[in-house]
Amino acid sequence: MATVTFKGATRIYPGSTIPALNKLDLEVNDQEFLVLVGPSGCGKSTCLRMLAGLEEVDEGSIFIGDRDVTNLAPKDRDIAMVFQSYALYPHMTVRENMGFALSIAGMPKDEIKSRVDDAAQILDLEPYLERKPKAMSGGQRQRVAMGRAIVRNPQVFLMDEPLSNLDAKLRVQTRTQIAKLQRDLGVTTVYVTHDQTEAMTMGDRICVLKDGFLMQVGTPQDLYDSPQNVFVAGFIGSPAMNLIEAPVIDGTVRLGGKSVDLPPVTAAALAAKGSKSVVLGFRPEDLRISTDDKAWPVEVTLVEGLGADAYVYAEVQLPDGAKKQIVVRTDGRTHPGRGEMLGLEAVEQHQHMFDAESGDRLPTK
Amino acid sequence: MPLRATATAAEPDLLFLPWGVALEQWPAQDTVALPRGISRHVVRFVRVNGAVYAVKEIEESFASREYGLLFDLGRLGAPCVEPVGVIAGREDSAGEPLPAALITRHLSFSLPYRALVRPTLGIHTWERLLDALVLLIVRLHLLGFAWNDCSLSNTLFLRDAGAFSAHLVDAETGELHESLSRGQRAYDIETAAMNVMGELMDLQAGGMVPDALDPAEVGADFQRRYEHLWLTLTDAVTVSSTDRYRIHTLLRTLNGLGFDVAELTAESTDGGSQIRVRPKVVDAGHHGRRMMHLTGLSMHENQARRLLNDIDSYRYTSGLDDDQHVAARRWVTDVYEAVLDRIPPEMRRKVEAPELVHEVLQHRWFSSERAHRDVGLQWATDDYVERHLAHAPDEAAVLGAPLDAVDSADDVDVRAT
Fold first, then answer.
1. I want to staple B82 with a disulfide (CB 3.0 to 4.6 A). Which of B36, B105, B370, B381 is the partner?
2. How far is CA A243 from CA A246, A250, B123, B347, in A?
């Protein structure tokens, strides 16, 4: 069983007073593909490196399964770090390349053979085992390199932005390969990226970090449908969720001169926090063009046509007179044009509301 | 898309290389045949205005990062290649983007390990190569730099009075911190050992390393040497007033290894009867600095150590032992320059000057031992030129070696990405 548990794990870099990772409590399930995501400086790499043994743990502890690994050297943790591809040796066959670390460690030959055979099968490398790397394509050579990590049969794979030095096309291809590989291998994997699309497509669960704090952890769908705070709401999803901050007066927000009523439960929660402003959240696909009286008047400033869909950028007026840009997704073939005045309405089941002070999600039902 | 170039040492002619062509396809006349290590990226060498540069094709953000790291390392005095520039915004003739290029200056007289390797290469030479690599890693660790992918292919070696001095070539995976944690050092040295073992096994599979060399044992030994050197340089020593000489011994050992001691931290233990002393070493170069100070000559550490010994014996035999500065200056004229002046100009570029002088002095010593008399400096120089230098390859840049003298499997096809 290879679970990974962070208990109050904290790292403060020498010379700094602000923790790079602040009392993280996180449990990664056995065989899970967990993605750590967040903007630069959020602590995701620090977290991974603490798990790897490359960063000291200043407070708290880290467990792999039942073992407390907090103070163990990297090589004693039974993890494999796949940070970058390994060099391939030109005089050795693919089989020898994949197994050389095991033969150095003195593993019996038949066990090495069996592990290399298993890995080759998963990686579609069986026909190439007796060839030298020189005769292979780039993608194949990359798989050989991954094979070296796989044959070690680690309890956990750690990957730190492994796709960042690839061009866009190769990134998408390799992303799919890695995800499939992890499913086939069933090895617990902790993966770091700054790219929320990568996180959404690859992770069983995603853990969003900001400034050293855990913002939310859950399945991609959870984070998409129920972001627990403004940061996660704006970070997950592309184009980003429209987030509009506005004062609440008598349980109502004024947008473009029209009233948006807060559900009673929301208004009550807000009042209980003593807050007077709310952040409304609408995903571009949860807004629609409407001729209803209650629709907010907006002026179209730009339309991005993408074939099947179009994204309409429009401006709505806030109570203080300022204009706020909103993005709406519409049908690509019948979208409005620039300069047009439209009415917008939110799909009720998919409205998000957050306390403007703390950023926390407010109940809407 | 316009080209964007960041360059320090201005060599403007580098801007006129064929940046609109993928590096792999650069015409042969623009590139120089140098033995390349096993690289993950496309690497080519070019000669521009007499200097040789290495060009590596790599994604722009990585190129900039590596450029910055090499620059910082250079300022810290770490032995590494000098970054020259990053060329970004490249496009081929069809308008397709090409990766950026990182340019570094090739170290004169430096040798990639594959140029040194012969099936007949002795175990001792291998040991010296690996010692040089261990010392390089220790020096980098003392500076707070974790290499994370040290290998023979990422290193250039220079001859240093019978030993080697190693220089970092590729900093792509490196990180510079205030100081390294135990885990970071452990990971770094383990990665290095694994890479060295793989490279040795690869050479063995290609018949270029004697089978008697056991990669697993070499790797284990490599880590042991690192641990030993690291402990020697950083461990504390507990002394009492009766054996305080041990502090002097420690300082001499550290100097002997080429390190200066910046400070000693001391705390009293055991009720004050003992002191626990921990040295804080600064980078190697103790002998090189002393040589520079005495003579103004710049040379590698081991060369400096040997030639300083020669200055000392010169000082005593010439009766100038009162003033080391005077003796040193006289030595430069009477010995160092005398040897170099006697070597035919066309042969002087074969080997670095301090190495030449060292070899001549060695030759003088060995010949004198055999002849049971002092053969003299002039004779030793002439004999050395005739017997050795005349037949030696030109190492100013290991150029033009026919490709079969260097393993042709070095062709850059072998990349994982």
1. B105
2. 10, 21, 68, 75
Concatenate the DSSP letters of all residues of B17-70 into one string. S-TTS-GGG--GGGEE-------SS-EEEEEETTEEEEEEEE-HHHHHHHHHHH
Structure confidence at residue B400 as a pLDDT band (50, 70, 90): very low
Q: Exposed, middle or buried, B6 (CB in 10 Å: 0-12/13-18/19+)?
A: middle
Per-residue confidence (pLDDT) for residue B413, from 0 to 100: 28
State ipTM.
Answer: 0.73
- Tell me the one-letter amino acid at A41: G
Name the DSSP class of A133: G
β-partners of residue A360 are: A229
To the nearest whole angstrom, how far is the Cα of B40 from the nearest Cα of chain A?
Answer: 6
CB A315 within 8 A of CB A324: yes
A353: burial class by Cβ within 10 Å (0-12, 13-18, 19+)? buried
User: A147 to chain B: nearest residue by CA?
Assistant: B416
Closest by Cα among B222, B170, B217, B213 to B191: B222
Tell me which residue has tokens 């029209």: A258
B230 close to B138: Cβ distance less than 8 angstroms: yes
Residues of B in contact with A165 (CB under 8 A): 58-59, 62, 417
- Comparing CB atoms, the residue among A101, A106, A134 nearest residue B413 is A134
Mean of the per-residue pLDDT values for chain A?
Answer: 90
Q: Residue A362 CA to chain centroid, in angstroms?
A: 23
Strands A252-255 and A258-261: antiparallel
Rounded CA separation B360/B355 (Å) = 9
Q: Which of A165, A240, A241, A223 is nearest to A36 (CA)?
A: A223
Distance CA A99, CA A112 (A): 6
Please give the backbone phi and psi of residue A11, each rounded to the nearest 5 degrees, phi first.
-135, 125
Distance (Å, whole) CA B174 – CA A117: 33
> Distance between CA B238 and CA A350 in Å, rounded?
70
CB contact at 8 A, A189 and A203: no
Whole-angstrom distance, CA of residue A68 vs CA of residue A53: 12
Q: Please provide the DSSP assignment of B91-125 as one string.
A: B-TTS-B--EEEEEEPPTT-EEHHHH--TT--HHH
Q: Could you give the CA distance from residue B20 to residue B91 in angstroms, rounded to a whole number?
A: 5
Beta carbons of A314 and A298 less than 8 angstroms apart: yes
| Run of H or E including B138 | helix B123-142
Give B124-161 pLDDT, tens digit per residue: 888 888 999 999 999 999 999 999 889 988 898 988 88
Which amino acid is residue B42, in one-letter code?
V
Q: How far apart are CA B228 and CA B244, in angstroms?
A: 23
Q: In one letter, which amino acid is A108?
A: P
pLDDT tens digit sequence for A288-302: 998 888 888 999 999
According to DSSP, the residues that pair with A217 across neighbouring strands are A207
pLDDT at B417 over 50: no
Name every chain B residue with its beta carbon within 8 A of the beta carbon of A95. Answer: none
C-alpha distances in Å from residue B242, one per residue of A12, B238, B239, B251, B265: 42, 12, 8, 17, 19
**Rounded Cα distance, A137 and B416, in Å:** 9
Return the higher-pLDDT residue of A37 and B43.
A37
What three-state secondary structure class fits A344? strand
pLDDT digits (tens, 9 = 90+) for A124-179: 899 999 988 877 776 777 788 788 888 989 999 999 887 776 777 778 888 888 88
Nearest of A148, A192, A157 to residue A77 by alpha carbon: A157
Measure B407 CA to nearest chain A CA, in Å: 10
Could you tell me if A87 and B196 are in contact, meaning their C-beta atoms sit under 8 angstroms apart? Answer: no
Question: How many residues in chain B?
Answer: 417
Peptide bond into A154 cis (omega under 30): no
